[in-house]
Amino acid sequence: MTLDTIAAISTAVGEGGIAVIRVSGPDAITESAKLFRSKSNIVDAPSHTVHYGHIVNPDDGEIVEEILLTIMRGPRSFTAEDVVELSTHGGVIAVKRVLALLLRQGSIRIAEPGEFTKRAFLNGRIDLTQAEAVIDLIRSKSDRAFTVAMKQAEGALSRKVKTLRHQLVELLAHIEVNIDYPEHDVTELTNQFILEKSRQACAEIDRLLKTAEEGKILREGIVTAIVGRPNVGKSSLLNALVQENKAIVTDIPGTTRDVIEEYITLGGIPLRLLDTAGIRETTDVVERIGVERSRTALEQADLILFVLNGNEPLHEDDRKLMEQLKGRPVIVLLNKSDLPSKLDTAELADFYTEESIVRMSVLNETGLDRLERVIRDMFFGGELESADLTYVSNVRHITLLHDARRSLTDAMEAIDNGIPIDIVQIDVRTAWEQLGEMIGDSVAESLIDQIFSQFCLGK
Protein backbone atom coordinates (compact mmCIF):
# COMPACT_ATOMS: atom_id res chain seq x y z
CA MET A 1 0.00 0.00 0.00
CA THR A 2 1.54 3.33 -1.12
CA LEU A 3 1.02 6.22 1.27
CA ASP A 4 2.51 9.66 1.73
CA THR A 5 5.40 10.38 4.09
CA ILE A 6 4.71 11.28 7.72
CA ALA A 7 6.79 12.49 10.67
CA ALA A 8 6.28 12.97 14.40
CA ILE A 9 8.14 13.14 17.70
CA SER A 10 8.09 9.61 19.13
CA THR A 11 9.51 10.34 22.59
CA ALA A 12 7.80 12.21 25.41
CA VAL A 13 8.17 15.98 25.15
CA GLY A 14 10.42 17.38 27.86
CA GLU A 15 13.98 17.22 29.14
CA GLY A 16 15.89 13.99 28.59
CA GLY A 17 19.08 12.49 27.24
CA ILE A 18 17.77 12.13 23.69
CA ALA A 19 14.60 12.70 21.70
CA VAL A 20 13.56 10.70 18.63
CA ILE A 21 11.73 11.90 15.54
CA ARG A 22 10.30 9.14 13.35
CA VAL A 23 9.75 9.57 9.60
CA SER A 24 7.93 6.90 7.55
CA GLY A 25 6.94 6.67 3.92
CA PRO A 26 8.32 6.51 0.37
CA ASP A 27 10.25 9.80 0.68
CA ALA A 28 11.53 9.30 4.25
CA ILE A 29 15.16 8.69 3.24
CA THR A 30 15.48 11.13 0.34
CA GLU A 31 13.80 14.03 2.17
CA SER A 32 15.84 13.46 5.34
CA ALA A 33 19.02 13.38 3.21
CA LYS A 34 18.33 16.94 2.07
CA LEU A 35 18.81 18.17 5.65
CA PHE A 36 21.51 15.73 6.80
CA ARG A 37 25.23 16.47 6.45
CA SER A 38 27.58 13.54 7.01
CA LYS A 39 30.55 11.75 5.51
CA SER A 40 28.20 8.95 4.39
CA ASN A 41 25.53 9.12 1.69
CA ILE A 42 22.37 7.92 3.40
CA VAL A 43 20.37 7.68 0.16
CA ASP A 44 22.38 4.59 -0.81
CA ALA A 45 23.07 3.40 2.75
CA PRO A 46 22.04 -0.15 3.66
CA SER A 47 19.11 -0.86 5.97
CA HIS A 48 19.48 -0.90 9.74
CA THR A 49 22.53 1.35 9.85
CA VAL A 50 23.22 4.36 12.07
CA HIS A 51 24.92 7.51 10.80
CA TYR A 52 26.46 10.43 12.69
CA GLY A 53 26.06 13.95 11.33
CA HIS A 54 24.26 17.29 11.56
CA ILE A 55 20.90 18.71 10.56
CA VAL A 56 21.51 21.81 8.46
CA ASN A 57 19.08 24.57 7.52
CA PRO A 58 19.03 24.42 3.68
CA ASP A 59 18.29 28.18 3.46
CA ASP A 60 21.55 29.41 5.01
CA GLY A 61 23.62 26.31 5.75
CA GLU A 62 23.42 26.88 9.52
CA ILE A 63 23.93 23.79 11.69
CA VAL A 64 20.69 23.24 13.61
CA GLU A 65 21.44 20.08 15.58
CA GLU A 66 23.93 17.24 16.02
CA ILE A 67 22.16 13.91 15.55
CA LEU A 68 22.34 10.17 14.97
CA LEU A 69 20.24 9.05 11.99
CA THR A 70 18.99 5.46 11.73
CA ILE A 71 17.79 3.97 8.44
CA MET A 72 15.34 1.03 8.27
CA ARG A 73 14.24 0.16 4.77
CA GLY A 74 10.85 -1.42 4.18
CA PRO A 75 9.51 -3.99 4.63
CA ARG A 76 12.00 -4.60 7.48
CA SER A 77 10.65 -1.79 9.65
CA PHE A 78 7.83 -1.17 12.11
CA THR A 79 5.53 0.28 9.45
CA ALA A 80 6.85 -2.00 6.65
CA GLU A 81 7.80 1.23 4.83
CA ASP A 82 11.10 3.09 4.61
CA VAL A 83 11.67 4.57 8.08
CA VAL A 84 14.18 7.13 9.32
CA GLU A 85 14.66 7.87 13.00
CA LEU A 86 16.53 11.03 14.00
CA SER A 87 17.95 11.01 17.53
CA THR A 88 18.48 14.57 18.72
CA HIS A 89 19.50 16.02 22.05
CA GLY A 90 16.67 15.83 24.54
CA GLY A 91 14.69 18.98 25.15
CA VAL A 92 11.76 20.80 23.62
CA ILE A 93 13.67 23.32 21.46
CA ALA A 94 16.09 20.96 19.75
CA VAL A 95 13.53 18.39 18.66
CA LYS A 96 10.98 20.98 17.54
CA ARG A 97 13.54 22.79 15.36
CA VAL A 98 14.44 19.56 13.57
CA LEU A 99 10.79 18.55 13.13
CA ALA A 100 9.94 21.99 11.73
CA LEU A 101 12.64 21.65 9.06
CA LEU A 102 11.37 18.19 8.10
CA LEU A 103 7.82 19.46 7.73
CA ARG A 104 9.04 22.25 5.46
CA GLN A 105 9.96 19.53 2.96
CA GLY A 106 7.03 19.46 0.57
CA SER A 107 6.24 15.74 0.75
CA ILE A 108 6.33 15.28 4.54
CA ARG A 109 3.34 15.96 6.80
CA ILE A 110 2.75 15.60 10.54
CA ALA A 111 1.50 12.16 11.53
CA GLU A 112 -1.91 11.62 13.08
CA PRO A 113 -2.21 9.88 16.48
CA GLY A 114 -1.34 6.19 16.09
CA GLU A 115 -0.65 6.52 12.37
CA PHE A 116 2.66 4.64 12.44
CA THR A 117 0.97 1.62 14.06
CA LYS A 118 -2.00 2.03 11.72
CA ARG A 119 0.36 1.78 8.74
CA ALA A 120 1.91 -1.36 10.21
CA PHE A 121 -1.61 -2.83 10.28
CA LEU A 122 -2.63 -1.59 6.82
CA ASN A 123 0.62 -2.89 5.32
CA GLY A 124 -0.04 -6.35 6.78
CA ARG A 125 2.89 -6.42 9.22
CA ILE A 126 0.58 -6.88 12.23
CA ASP A 127 -3.11 -7.62 12.69
CA LEU A 128 -5.60 -5.58 14.69
CA THR A 129 -5.18 -7.45 17.99
CA GLN A 130 -1.42 -6.90 17.80
CA ALA A 131 -1.92 -3.22 16.99
CA GLU A 132 -4.22 -2.78 19.98
CA ALA A 133 -1.63 -4.49 22.17
CA VAL A 134 0.81 -1.66 21.38
CA ILE A 135 -1.30 0.84 23.29
CA ASP A 136 -1.65 -1.68 26.13
CA LEU A 137 2.16 -1.87 26.29
CA ILE A 138 2.37 1.90 26.60
CA ARG A 139 -0.34 2.08 29.26
CA SER A 140 0.79 -0.93 31.32
CA LYS A 141 0.54 -0.28 35.05
CA SER A 142 2.40 -3.41 36.22
CA ASP A 143 5.05 -5.90 35.08
CA ARG A 144 2.38 -8.55 34.61
CA ALA A 145 0.15 -6.27 32.51
CA PHE A 146 3.19 -5.48 30.35
CA THR A 147 3.95 -9.20 29.92
CA VAL A 148 0.34 -9.92 28.88
CA ALA A 149 0.40 -7.04 26.38
CA MET A 150 3.78 -8.17 24.99
CA LYS A 151 2.46 -11.69 24.37
CA GLN A 152 -0.52 -10.23 22.52
CA ALA A 153 1.75 -7.90 20.50
CA GLU A 154 3.78 -10.97 19.50
CA GLY A 155 0.59 -12.60 18.21
CA ALA A 156 -0.43 -15.06 20.97
CA LEU A 157 -4.13 -14.16 20.75
CA SER A 158 -4.01 -13.78 16.96
CA ARG A 159 -2.75 -17.33 16.54
CA LYS A 160 -5.59 -18.73 18.63
CA VAL A 161 -8.21 -16.73 16.72
CA LYS A 162 -6.74 -17.74 13.36
CA THR A 163 -6.79 -21.41 14.40
CA LEU A 164 -10.46 -21.06 15.35
CA ARG A 165 -11.27 -19.41 12.01
CA HIS A 166 -9.44 -22.17 10.13
CA GLN A 167 -11.58 -24.77 11.91
CA LEU A 168 -14.73 -22.87 10.92
CA VAL A 169 -13.55 -22.59 7.29
CA GLU A 170 -13.21 -26.40 7.18
CA LEU A 171 -16.69 -26.64 8.65
CA LEU A 172 -18.10 -24.23 6.06
CA ALA A 173 -16.45 -26.21 3.26
CA HIS A 174 -18.07 -29.40 4.57
CA ILE A 175 -21.46 -27.70 4.62
CA GLU A 176 -20.95 -26.39 1.05
CA VAL A 177 -20.32 -29.93 -0.17
CA ASN A 178 -23.59 -31.07 1.42
CA ILE A 179 -25.50 -28.16 -0.16
CA ASP A 180 -23.93 -28.61 -3.62
CA TYR A 181 -24.28 -32.41 -3.71
CA PRO A 182 -27.51 -33.24 -1.86
CA GLU A 183 -27.90 -36.47 -3.84
CA HIS A 184 -25.20 -38.10 -1.68
CA ASP A 185 -27.61 -37.91 1.28
CA VAL A 186 -25.00 -37.21 3.97
CA THR A 187 -27.10 -34.68 5.90
CA GLU A 188 -27.07 -36.69 9.14
CA LEU A 189 -23.29 -37.10 9.05
CA THR A 190 -22.89 -33.40 8.23
CA ASN A 191 -25.12 -32.41 11.14
CA GLN A 192 -23.03 -34.49 13.55
CA PHE A 193 -19.87 -32.95 12.11
CA ILE A 194 -21.26 -29.43 12.57
CA LEU A 195 -22.27 -30.15 16.17
CA GLU A 196 -18.87 -31.63 17.04
CA LYS A 197 -16.84 -28.82 15.46
CA SER A 198 -19.12 -26.11 16.88
CA ARG A 199 -18.79 -27.57 20.39
CA GLN A 200 -15.00 -27.64 20.02
CA ALA A 201 -14.95 -24.01 18.87
CA CYS A 202 -17.26 -22.96 21.72
CA ALA A 203 -15.00 -24.72 24.23
CA GLU A 204 -11.96 -22.81 22.96
CA ILE A 205 -13.88 -19.51 23.07
CA ASP A 206 -14.94 -20.33 26.64
CA ARG A 207 -11.28 -20.90 27.58
CA LEU A 208 -10.42 -17.45 26.25
CA LEU A 209 -13.40 -15.77 27.92
CA LYS A 210 -12.48 -17.38 31.23
CA THR A 211 -9.41 -15.13 31.29
CA ALA A 212 -11.40 -12.00 30.45
CA GLU A 213 -12.14 -10.76 33.98
CA GLU A 214 -8.56 -11.21 35.17
CA GLY A 215 -7.22 -9.81 31.89
CA LYS A 216 -9.35 -6.69 32.21
CA ILE A 217 -8.09 -6.20 35.78
CA LEU A 218 -4.47 -6.59 34.67
CA ARG A 219 -5.07 -4.12 31.83
CA GLU A 220 -7.02 -1.44 33.68
CA GLY A 221 -6.33 -2.13 37.35
CA ILE A 222 -8.81 -2.64 40.19
CA VAL A 223 -10.56 0.66 40.92
CA THR A 224 -10.09 0.77 44.69
CA ALA A 225 -11.75 3.37 46.91
CA ILE A 226 -10.28 4.01 50.37
CA VAL A 227 -13.21 5.09 52.56
CA GLY A 228 -13.93 5.74 56.18
CA ARG A 229 -14.83 8.55 58.50
CA PRO A 230 -12.32 11.39 59.02
CA ASN A 231 -9.03 10.74 60.78
CA VAL A 232 -9.00 6.92 60.70
CA GLY A 233 -5.83 6.77 58.58
CA LYS A 234 -7.05 6.77 54.96
CA SER A 235 -4.47 9.22 53.65
CA SER A 236 -1.73 7.56 55.70
CA LEU A 237 -2.71 4.25 54.09
CA LEU A 238 -2.47 5.81 50.62
CA ASN A 239 0.98 7.18 51.42
CA ALA A 240 2.11 3.79 52.77
CA LEU A 241 0.89 1.96 49.65
CA VAL A 242 2.36 4.52 47.25
CA GLN A 243 5.56 4.84 49.33
CA GLU A 244 5.36 8.60 48.95
CA ASN A 245 3.68 11.49 50.76
CA LYS A 246 0.96 12.08 48.17
CA ALA A 247 -1.78 13.03 50.66
CA ILE A 248 -1.61 15.59 53.47
CA VAL A 249 -1.88 13.93 56.88
CA THR A 250 -2.90 15.90 60.00
CA ASP A 251 -4.85 15.32 63.21
CA ILE A 252 -7.51 17.74 61.95
CA PRO A 253 -10.67 15.95 60.70
CA GLY A 254 -11.65 16.89 57.15
CA THR A 255 -8.09 17.59 55.89
CA THR A 256 -8.69 15.66 52.67
CA ARG A 257 -11.16 17.70 50.63
CA ASP A 258 -11.03 15.93 47.25
CA VAL A 259 -10.49 12.48 45.73
CA ILE A 260 -6.76 11.72 45.23
CA GLU A 261 -5.95 9.12 42.55
CA GLU A 262 -2.81 6.99 42.30
CA TYR A 263 -1.77 3.77 40.53
CA ILE A 264 0.20 1.13 42.45
CA THR A 265 1.10 -2.54 42.04
CA LEU A 266 0.54 -4.72 45.08
CA GLY A 267 2.11 -8.15 44.65
CA GLY A 268 1.67 -7.98 40.88
CA ILE A 269 -1.94 -6.75 41.17
CA PRO A 270 -2.50 -3.27 39.68
CA LEU A 271 -4.70 -1.02 41.84
CA ARG A 272 -6.11 2.36 40.88
CA LEU A 273 -6.35 3.89 44.34
CA LEU A 274 -8.88 6.59 45.17
CA ASP A 275 -8.27 8.27 48.52
CA THR A 276 -11.56 9.90 49.46
CA ALA A 277 -12.57 12.63 51.84
CA GLY A 278 -13.89 11.34 55.17
CA ILE A 279 -17.60 10.56 54.80
CA ARG A 280 -19.63 12.27 57.51
CA GLU A 281 -22.33 14.89 57.95
CA THR A 282 -20.77 18.36 57.83
CA THR A 283 -21.79 22.01 57.56
CA ASP A 284 -18.50 22.98 55.88
CA VAL A 285 -19.40 23.79 52.25
CA VAL A 286 -16.03 22.74 50.78
CA GLU A 287 -15.84 19.54 52.84
CA ARG A 288 -19.42 18.69 51.84
CA ILE A 289 -18.39 18.84 48.15
CA GLY A 290 -15.50 16.47 48.95
CA VAL A 291 -17.89 14.09 50.72
CA GLU A 292 -20.19 14.03 47.67
CA ARG A 293 -17.23 13.27 45.42
CA SER A 294 -16.29 10.48 47.78
CA ARG A 295 -19.75 8.96 47.42
CA THR A 296 -19.42 9.14 43.62
CA ALA A 297 -16.03 7.39 43.76
CA LEU A 298 -17.62 4.76 45.97
CA GLU A 299 -20.18 3.94 43.27
CA GLN A 300 -17.46 3.51 40.62
CA ALA A 301 -15.18 1.30 42.72
CA ASP A 302 -14.50 -2.40 42.02
CA LEU A 303 -13.10 -2.76 45.54
CA ILE A 304 -13.61 -0.77 48.74
CA LEU A 305 -11.01 -0.58 51.49
CA PHE A 306 -13.09 0.38 54.53
CA VAL A 307 -10.74 1.84 57.14
CA LEU A 308 -11.70 1.70 60.82
CA ASN A 309 -9.77 2.93 63.84
CA GLY A 310 -9.12 -0.16 65.96
CA ASN A 311 -8.07 2.06 68.88
CA GLU A 312 -11.60 3.50 69.24
CA PRO A 313 -15.06 2.01 69.72
CA LEU A 314 -17.21 1.79 66.62
CA HIS A 315 -18.57 5.25 65.79
CA GLU A 316 -22.09 6.02 64.55
CA ASP A 317 -20.59 7.29 61.26
CA ASP A 318 -18.86 3.88 60.92
CA ARG A 319 -22.19 2.09 61.32
CA LYS A 320 -23.84 4.31 58.69
CA LEU A 321 -21.04 3.49 56.25
CA MET A 322 -21.38 -0.22 56.94
CA GLU A 323 -25.04 0.01 55.95
CA GLN A 324 -24.19 1.93 52.78
CA LEU A 325 -21.55 -0.62 51.78
CA LYS A 326 -23.85 -3.65 52.04
CA GLY A 327 -23.49 -5.95 49.05
CA ARG A 328 -20.28 -4.29 47.82
CA PRO A 329 -16.85 -5.97 47.60
CA VAL A 330 -15.33 -4.68 50.86
CA ILE A 331 -12.13 -5.37 52.76
CA VAL A 332 -12.20 -3.99 56.31
CA LEU A 333 -8.90 -2.53 57.50
CA LEU A 334 -8.63 -2.27 61.29
CA ASN A 335 -5.96 0.39 61.50
CA LYS A 336 -3.74 1.26 64.48
CA SER A 337 -3.31 -2.37 65.54
CA ASP A 338 -0.08 -1.27 67.25
CA LEU A 339 -2.27 0.42 69.90
CA PRO A 340 -4.59 -1.27 72.43
CA SER A 341 -7.73 -2.55 70.67
CA LYS A 342 -10.97 -0.82 71.72
CA LEU A 343 -13.20 -1.81 68.81
CA ASP A 344 -15.54 -4.73 69.43
CA THR A 345 -15.18 -6.87 66.27
CA ALA A 346 -18.36 -8.75 67.18
CA GLU A 347 -20.25 -5.72 65.84
CA LEU A 348 -18.73 -6.41 62.41
CA ALA A 349 -19.81 -10.04 62.28
CA ASP A 350 -23.24 -9.27 60.77
CA PHE A 351 -21.57 -7.55 57.82
CA TYR A 352 -18.16 -9.12 57.24
CA THR A 353 -16.43 -12.48 57.53
CA GLU A 354 -13.15 -12.84 59.38
CA GLU A 355 -11.43 -13.50 56.03
CA SER A 356 -12.35 -10.00 54.80
CA ILE A 357 -10.91 -8.25 57.89
CA VAL A 358 -7.27 -7.15 57.91
CA ARG A 359 -5.62 -5.91 61.09
CA MET A 360 -2.86 -3.49 60.29
CA SER A 361 -0.78 -0.57 61.44
CA VAL A 362 -0.24 1.99 58.71
CA LEU A 363 2.31 3.72 60.95
CA ASN A 364 4.45 0.59 61.21
CA GLU A 365 3.45 -0.66 57.73
CA THR A 366 2.29 -4.03 59.06
CA GLY A 367 -0.61 -5.97 57.56
CA LEU A 368 0.10 -5.08 53.91
CA ASP A 369 1.06 -8.70 53.09
CA ARG A 370 -2.25 -9.88 54.49
CA LEU A 371 -4.10 -7.20 52.45
CA GLU A 372 -2.40 -8.45 49.29
CA ARG A 373 -3.47 -12.05 49.98
CA VAL A 374 -7.10 -11.05 50.62
CA ILE A 375 -7.25 -9.08 47.35
CA ARG A 376 -5.70 -12.02 45.49
CA ASP A 377 -8.32 -14.39 46.99
CA MET A 378 -11.15 -12.02 46.14
CA PHE A 379 -10.26 -11.34 42.48
CA PHE A 380 -8.00 -14.18 41.37
CA GLY A 381 -9.16 -17.17 43.38
CA GLY A 382 -6.00 -17.23 45.45
CA GLU A 383 -3.34 -16.85 42.78
CA LEU A 384 -2.72 -15.28 39.40
CA GLU A 385 -2.83 -17.54 36.38
CA SER A 386 0.42 -18.60 34.71
CA ALA A 387 2.29 -15.87 32.85
CA ASP A 388 2.16 -18.17 29.79
CA LEU A 389 -1.63 -17.91 29.62
CA THR A 390 -3.15 -15.91 26.77
CA TYR A 391 -5.38 -13.33 28.44
CA VAL A 392 -8.25 -11.53 26.74
CA SER A 393 -8.46 -8.03 28.20
CA ASN A 394 -9.85 -5.79 25.45
CA VAL A 395 -13.59 -5.05 25.71
CA ARG A 396 -13.94 -5.19 21.91
CA HIS A 397 -12.38 -8.65 21.81
CA ILE A 398 -14.54 -9.90 24.68
CA THR A 399 -17.71 -8.66 22.96
CA LEU A 400 -16.80 -10.30 19.64
CA LEU A 401 -15.96 -13.61 21.33
CA HIS A 402 -19.37 -13.59 23.03
CA ASP A 403 -21.01 -12.78 19.68
CA ALA A 404 -19.17 -15.60 17.89
CA ARG A 405 -20.11 -18.08 20.60
CA ARG A 406 -23.75 -16.99 20.37
CA SER A 407 -23.71 -17.53 16.59
CA LEU A 408 -22.30 -21.04 16.99
CA THR A 409 -24.91 -21.80 19.66
CA ASP A 410 -27.61 -20.62 17.22
CA ALA A 411 -26.18 -23.01 14.61
CA MET A 412 -26.33 -25.97 17.01
CA GLU A 413 -29.87 -25.10 18.09
CA ALA A 414 -30.91 -24.82 14.44
CA ILE A 415 -29.66 -28.36 13.78
CA ASP A 416 -31.53 -29.69 16.82
CA ASN A 417 -34.70 -28.02 15.55
CA GLY A 418 -34.36 -29.49 12.05
CA ILE A 419 -33.62 -26.16 10.33
CA PRO A 420 -32.29 -26.57 6.73
CA ILE A 421 -28.50 -26.76 6.53
CA ASP A 422 -28.17 -23.68 4.30
CA ILE A 423 -29.67 -21.60 7.15
CA VAL A 424 -27.25 -23.22 9.61
CA GLN A 425 -24.43 -22.17 7.30
CA ILE A 426 -25.35 -18.50 7.85
CA ASP A 427 -24.77 -18.77 11.60
CA VAL A 428 -21.42 -20.52 11.16
CA ARG A 429 -20.28 -17.92 8.62
CA THR A 430 -21.37 -15.13 10.96
CA ALA A 431 -19.18 -16.61 13.73
CA TRP A 432 -16.26 -16.80 11.29
CA GLU A 433 -16.74 -13.14 10.32
CA GLN A 434 -17.01 -12.02 13.97
CA LEU A 435 -13.71 -13.70 14.78
CA GLY A 436 -12.27 -12.07 11.67
CA GLU A 437 -13.32 -8.68 12.99
CA MET A 438 -11.13 -9.31 16.06
CA ILE A 439 -7.95 -9.54 13.98
CA GLY A 440 -9.06 -6.95 11.40
CA ASP A 441 -9.85 -9.22 8.45
CA SER A 442 -13.36 -7.81 8.25
CA VAL A 443 -13.75 -4.50 10.03
CA ALA A 444 -15.21 -1.11 9.12
CA GLU A 445 -12.79 1.70 8.30
CA SER A 446 -14.53 3.96 10.84
CA LEU A 447 -13.74 1.44 13.62
CA ILE A 448 -10.09 1.28 12.54
CA ASP A 449 -9.89 5.09 12.70
CA GLN A 450 -11.51 5.07 16.15
CA ILE A 451 -9.07 2.46 17.50
CA PHE A 452 -5.94 4.25 16.31
CA SER A 453 -7.16 7.68 17.40
CA GLN A 454 -6.64 6.52 21.00
CA PHE A 455 -2.88 6.22 20.43
CA CYS A 456 -0.40 8.95 21.29
CA LEU A 457 1.19 11.05 18.56
CA GLY A 458 4.33 9.45 17.19
CA LYS A 459 3.33 5.81 17.82
TrEMBL record:
SUPFAM superfamilies: P-loop containing nucleoside triphosphate hydrolases. It is an enzyme of class 3 (hydrolase). Mg(2+) binds at S235, T256. It is found in: Cytoplasm. Signal peptide: none annotated. Homodimer. Heterotetramer of two MnmE and two MnmG subunits. It holds the Pfam family MMR_HSR1. Its EC number is 3.6.-.-. HAMAP family: GTPase_MnmE. Its cofactor is K(+). Its main location: cytoplasm. This is tRNA modification GTPase MnmE. The gene is mnmE.
